[in-house]
Amino acid sequence: MGKRILRIILQVFGVALILSGGLWTLQGLGIVMWPAESFMLADRSWAVNGSITAAVGAILIWASTRIRK
Questions:
Q1: Rounded to whole angstroms, how far apart are CA atoms 66 and 46?
Q2: Per-residue pLDDT in tens (0 to 9) along the chain, 69 residues
Q3: Residues 6+ away with beta carbon under 8 Å from 31
Q4: pTM surpassing 0.70?
Q5: What number of CA atoms fall less than 13 Å from residue 28's CA on the CB side?
């Protein structure tokens, strides 16, 4: 039961990190200009931060598949 819960937690956090990292990347590249008053818009450092965040999310999802039942 404990391993199943751990897998679910890793997957939920992984998806959340991928989605938020993707948004940060798109905002940093100036592709998504929402919300209009955001400080992240067209700032390349946020594109890098978002890419790293999304990669960490992908690693968490990958790690969740490696947990044995």
A1: 30
A2: 799 999 999 999 999 999 999 999 999 999 999 999 999 999 999 999 999 999 999 999 999 999 986
A3: none
A4: yes
A5: 16
